[in-house]
């Protein structure tokens, strides 16, 4: 599949709260003023293997298909950090966004690993990528403060939002494909995706926001930033309805499980927390990563969490709270992770400028084309 030439035209602590509203603990927050740091690439090369968990629970060995994860191939072509990744809705194409001084989007065939096309999409790092759930729109955001929209079917550039005054670090789209939310160093803004116009500002410039995620109900938004607090918002009213606290560092990544029951947050304090939206309680606190969490992704079936940090990508069983294994292969920090829509493929992007594609069951769920096992 060739990308149309038109593309060249442009989330060990408990909830600290007193009251609970809608099952979510309330807690005040205080923001700090500091941009997120970018790791360097001085780490040594790690072997391209899965390091199994030392936990011998039979649930880990038999229940999760990512126990059988295998390396597929490495994609090269970026000149800087691979800061964000997104699979096309049909799973045939992987889109990657470059970091500082490499504000390009690249389009890769999952069939053979070939680069199909690329374009200079932003003047600075591409910090977020997402497809609308209806598969019609590709959205990118950047450190340059812009949000770009493309019609995915035709490849035609359609619009740019330029109302943020500072770095945009995250974006999310509601399940009905109607509403876009962006989190930036100057707060949170909500946009009409179909109408291509701004709707309202949810959080003011006084709050730096690193991560946003939308629940499957399409009405609930989670945000996280420098104060270490996860805030929960009602998108219909624009009201803050609750918060989870307990992080000792900025919240850098957020993801809801597909059923909307749980929220997962990753932090610069090296922990990952799984929160119950129904009870407002902390279910799991994953720790042991050597450094800050850079990115999170949850498989479409809601069973597996992938977390990116300095030494690779950890895979967690969200049903049991146990570590499945560690994917290594990047020479340094892993900055981005994404699952395909069928849940069988995982892409990881690193500071080493490389993208690695992994598969959870190569034998029974092969990608089209030739596999190259390492």
Descriptive overview:
There is one protein chain. With 374 residues, the protein is an all-beta fold. Helix content is 2%, strand content 45%. It is built from 1 helix and 31 strands. It has one helix at 58-63; strands spanning 20-21, 24-25, 50-52, 70-75, 82-87, 93-98, 104-109, 115-120, 126-131, 137-142, 147-151, 157-161, 168-173, 179-184, 187-192, 197-203, 209-214, 220-225, 230-234, 239-244, 251-256, 262-267, 272-276, 282-286, 295-298, 304-309, 312-317, 322-327, 334-339, 345-350, 355-359. The strands form 8 sheets. Strands 3-28-27-26-25 form a 5-stranded antiparallel beta sheet, with no helix packed on it. The chain starts with 19 loop residues before the first strand and ends in a 15-residue tail after the last strand.
Helix amount, in percent? Answer: under 10%
Structural class computed from helices and strand pairing:
mainly beta
Low-confidence stretches: 1-62, 366-374
What topology, given as strand order, has the largest sheet? 3-28-27-26-25
Our estimate of the beta-strand percent is 35-45%
Oligomer state of the chains in this structure:
single chain
């Amino acid at each position: 599949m060739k990308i149309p030439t038109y593309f060249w035209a442009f989330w060990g602590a408990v909830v600290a709260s007193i009251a609970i509203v809608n099952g979510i603990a309330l807690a005040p927050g205080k923001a700090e003023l500091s941009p997120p740091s970018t790791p360097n690439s001085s780490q040594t090369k790690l072997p391209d293997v899965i390091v199994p968990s030392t936990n011998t629970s039979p649930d880990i060995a038999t229940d999760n298909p990512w126990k059988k994860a295998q390396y597929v191939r490495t994609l090269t072509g970026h000149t800087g950090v691979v800061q964000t990744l997104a699979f096309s809705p049909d799973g045939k194409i992987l889109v990657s966004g470059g970091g500082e001084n490499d504000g390009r989007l690249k389009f890769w065939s999952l069939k053979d690993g070939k680069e199909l096309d690329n374009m200079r999409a932003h003047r600075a790092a591409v910090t977020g990528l997402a497809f609308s759930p209806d598969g019609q729109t590709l959205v990118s955001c950047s450190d340059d403060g812009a949000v770009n929209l493309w019609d995915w079917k035709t490849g035609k550039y359609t619009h740019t939002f330029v109302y943020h005054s500072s770095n945009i670090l995250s974006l999310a789209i509601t399940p009905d494909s109607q509403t876009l939310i962006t989190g930036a160093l100057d707060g949170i803004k909500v946009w009409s995706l179909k109408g291509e116009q701004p709707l309202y500002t949810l959080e003011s410039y006084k709050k730096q926001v690193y991560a946003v995620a939308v629940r499957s109900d399409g009405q609930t938004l989670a945000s996280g930033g420098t104060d270490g607090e996860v805030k929960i918002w009602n998108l219909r009213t624009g009201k803050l309805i609750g918060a989870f606290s307990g992080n000792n560092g900025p919240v850098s990544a957020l993801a809801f499980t597909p059923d909307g029951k749980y929220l997962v947050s990753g932090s610069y304090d090296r922990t990952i927390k799984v929160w119950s939206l129904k009870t407002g309680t902390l279910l799991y606190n994953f720790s042991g990563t050597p450094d800050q969490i850079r990115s999170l992704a949850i498989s479409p079936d809601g069973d597996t969490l992938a977390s990116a940090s300095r030494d690779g990508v950890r895979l967690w069983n969200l049903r049991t709270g146990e570590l499945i294994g560690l994917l290594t292969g990047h020479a340094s920090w892993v900055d981005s992770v994404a699952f395909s829509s069928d849940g069988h493929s995982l892409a990881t992007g690193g500071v080493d400028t490389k993208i690695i594609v992994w598969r959870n069951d190569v034998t029974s769920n092969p990608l089209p084309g030739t596999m190259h096992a390492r």
